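Write out this protein's structure.
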Amino acid sequence: MSFTDTIHVRLRPSRILRVTSLLVHVAALAVLIVLACHRPSFAALAVCVIVSGVYADRRIMLRRSSVITRLRWGADHALYWQGGDGVEHRGRCTEAKSWGALWVRLRAREAGRRWPWVFIIPFDAVEPDVHRRLRGRCRTMPPGPGSGPGT
């Protein structure tokens, strides 16, 4: 298989992303505790951090209907993705970045949607061969200026 073939991705929960999210939320709680020592009203923000942590964990563990579970990236930079609720979306990849061997980040524009979709795919959320192909596509065939909507 070459990097120009369509890449089919089936996502699974990422342990590394879950640990990262937990550490960020624990650090935010620690900062709020220190701030609450001087201004007790900051302690009320701890509820927001806890709710955010629970919400993030549910998304990372793919327990929300809006979280993508499948992704297909064509050589023409067409992206098709499916959420946990089975709804399929279609757009164009406008940016693809590989952060070493750890993460792949894709930005997609869907027709009629104001804000782009951003997909972060950690190495442990997909098969190793699929992640290698994603990283290769990011380096050898990044989306160009003509990959935006309307092209």
